[in-house]
Amino acid sequence: MANEPKLQVQEKKELAAKGEKTVPARYYVPATDIYETEEALTVVMEVPGVEREAIDVNIENDVLKVEARIDFAKYEGLEPLYTEYNVGHFSRAFTLSNKIDQQRIGANVEDGVLTLTLPKAKEAQPRRIEIK
């Protein structure tokens, strides 16, 4: 217990856009964890303050794109005394391999956490070979 790492505040990383955005707002890279099981990859992404209707998950040319937009109306008129992070939209993209079954990708959001399930294609899943 003496060697437990201490929790530390992580700075939000602002997205370095490759192109111009039509929405005049900051975009941030959401903190993300990826887990692998025999059946799928699970992507867990933090998108605090974003409503379910304001999240877009798209696949185009084997790239999975996630964009989550904040409703700035919630923050109008607020004068913060102290802030540790800026408010802004979230954006992240992942290149998918051919080992992911793109037709069966699922998404769920709860309490500001977006969970994507990327099932592996049948040929990418481990299987047991019967010995005769």
From TrEMBL:
- Spell out where the chain crosses the membrane: none
- PROSITE patterns per the UniProt record, alphabetical: SHSP
A Pfam family this chain is assigned to:
HSP20
Task: Give the domain of life.
Answer: Bacteria
Q: Which residues form the SHSP domain?
A: 22-132
Extract the SUPFAM superfamilies matched here: HSP20-like chaperones (SSF49764)
Concerning its family, UniProt says:
Belongs to the small heat shock protein (HSP20) family.
Q: What is this protein called?
A: Molecular chaperone Hsp20
Q: Which organism is it from?
A: Hypericibacter terrae
